[in-house]
Amino acid sequence: MTVKSRTPCIGICSTTSLGDTVCRGCKRYAFEVIQWNSYDDAAKVAVLKRAEKLIVQILENKFRIFSVPSLKLGLEQRSIPFNETLSPYCWLHNLLKKNHGKIDDLKHYGVYALPEYANLGIEELSELIEEELILLCEAHLDRYLADAPRMGSRLKAKSG
């Protein structure tokens, strides 16, 4: 399957504005955000697929998408960017990042929380997901990209 290499930015960039190592929106690393336009298509696809894998890993353990068309329609109605070639769990991530405070019922989007998370509010669940994703992304960066350029990382702060 070919993944379109357009930017995964959803308009919540924290790497350039706050100096985060991992973008709170798209989950790219700061150096990837900065160098994105210089990447060839293969490099862009690799970044997208890595972020997709990490996002899906976290969201599949908390949600089920029972209607992809409902999720897509909800995103389109709210003008939330999403890449149709990536997993619908990535689309759900974008919805939660952009509108978690405005969602009354995920079922309108073709999604439900798994029983062990159903008692949490959408905002609380979104925060839990964000924490887990940032930790997973930072661990991946440390493990596989140890020599990558860094901006203001929480990992540096912890070790210093």
Keywords:
160 residues; mainly alpha; two-stranded antiparallel ribbon; 2 strands
Could you outline the blueprint of secondary structure elements for this entry?
Blueprint: H1 15-18, H2 30-35, H3 41-59, E1 63-65, H4 68-77, H5 88-99, E2 111-113, H6 122-144, H7 154-159
Antiparallel strand pairs: 1-2
Provide the spatial order of strands within the biggest beta sheet: 1-2
Mind describing the biggest β-sheet?
Answer: 2 strands, antiparallel
Helix share bin = 40-55%
Quote the average pLDDT.
84
Distance between the termini: 42 Å
Q: How big a fraction of the residues is strand? A: under 5%
| Count of alpha and pi helical runs | 7
- The tally of domains stands at 1
SS-based structural class?
Answer: mainly alpha
Helix/strand order: HHHEHHEHH
Poorly predicted runs of 5 or more residues: 151-160
Shape: globular
The rounded Rg comes to 16 Å
Structure summary, number of beta strands: 2
Structural description of this entry:
The structure is a single chain. The protein has one domain (15-159). The protein is 50% helix and 4% strand. The protein contains seven helices and two strands, in the order H-H-H-E-H-H-E-H-H. It has helices spanning 15-18, 30-35, 41-59, 68-77, 88-99, 122-144, 154-159; strands at residues 63-65, 111-113. Helix 3 packs across helix 5 (88-99), helix 3 (41-59) crosses helix 6 (122-144) and helix 4 runs parallel beside helix 5. The longest helix has 23 residues, at 122-144. Residues 151-160 have low confidence and may be disordered.
